[in-house]
Design brief:
Elements lengths: L7 H12 L29 E8 L9 E3 L2 H10 L28 E3 L10 E4 L4 H8 L3 E8 L23 H10 L10 H9 L11 E3 L15 E2 L25 H10 L6 H26 L10 H19 L4 E8 L15 H18 L13 E6 L19 E6 L8 E2 L29 E2 H12 L4 H7 L15
Parallel strand pairs: 1-8, 1-9, 5-11, 5-12, 6-7, 6-8
Antiparallel strand pairs: 2-4, 3-4, 5-10, 9-10
Amino acid sequence: MSYNKNSRREFLRKLACVAASGGTAAMIPQLRMMGTALASQTQALTGYKALVCIYLSGGNDGWNLLVPYDNARYNVYAAARSGVYTTGGANPNPGGLALAQPAAGNAQIVTDALDGNSATNQYFFNPAAPELASLFKAGHLAMVVNAGTLVRPITKAQYNTPSNRPPQLFSHSDQEDLWHQANTNGSSVLGWGGLCGDIVGSSNLNQQLSSCISIAGANRFEVGMSTVPYQLSSSGLTTLSGMCNPQPCMGVSTTSVRDSALNGMLHDTYANDFPGEYAKVFQRGRDLSNLLSAGLGATTVPSFPANNSLASQLQTVAKMIKLSKAQNYAQRQIYYVRYGGFDLHAGMMSGNGNHGQLLTAVSQAMNAFYTAMGTGTNGVNAQNEVTVFTASEFGRTLQSNGSGSDHGWGSLQMVLGGSVQGGRLFSDGAGPIKGFPNQDLNAPNNFSRGQMIPGIGVEQYAATLAYWLGVTSPTDLATIFPNLANFSSSNLLFI
């Protein structure tokens, strides 16, 4: 793969990233003027598969999503989190971040099917996320434990050597980029989703529609060598006022001054590459609107929770998947949605927008999406063909800062789908008990405030998902995930 920064390909790729950050983003479909540098796979992919990335912006506190239940490990957790949060009674602790240990038999308690030791294989989900507990128990949801950005497996002693650790740790923007790239090259402009799209997209019957589709605006994750995400809003397609979209015109004269002026600009011959390429991109956006608008508007899926922005995005994803399957637009697709508010330096346990409220929205939205993928009324019938996964730039410190938590490192991620090895915790096994790391402050695998050193690299997590999607060539995997060879396993087997 060439990264010649003076090449026309590099210029156009960066142009696409710039354009995707402005008001024209909704009109950007796949750019076909760039040749692919991947795609060593030549055999066409059959059937349908889709990945759906849920990005939890701000740094989700995964350590309060799932908690060890046995007394020994729970007590370590509670101490590290500055005690159990409480505002009443004789000894209030409003600065504590620990969840209260539920009584035996509580519905939020789950069992890790990978750990055969019955005394230490129980955990409990945050009480704000009962749907996630149910999905886990039903075998549809898996937890990937202590994942984060890594150059290679690292110990606390090795951290002091800069080349051993990712650049700009604890920075929101930098760590988000590294999660989107699934590598530690700070200057890269490409995302692992987009690079996978370069490979699997060639199997799609409709080459007009990008293999990568965003419901959350511009993102690095879906930008590849020849793949640029097509963007929708959670309410669907955006039309141009007073224009003929879609064809045939509805209530607008084909000879209107506005429509004629736009068509004139789009079909003009430009001496400069910039306006010429912009006109082509804009026209492709209009063509895709014409292609999708009628079908998307008529597509129905089961109901989703109201007043939940993540649910609204996932509802649009469900409609697009159903439409794409019905019209045979694509054999492989990659979707991106985003839900923010997780940077809880304060108000983590109480107040508007606290962590429990955020998890409730996530839990309800993911459950509704999995139900929509089923075979019920208006269902998509694609539960085994669609895999949802979460990502977030980092976890949080275990230790409280007084009313919240600060930027950490490793955290927990979720993988949901009919093909997922659910009801299990997947980790590097390096903790004192299989499945979870040692949460004692300043233990060998974390720093003094409980910034957990990841046991699983983003490359391993992403490569496992990419392999399931159809990126199976070792050469392609090594190109997309250049640090993958530094880890003992390139497939975590959760799917």
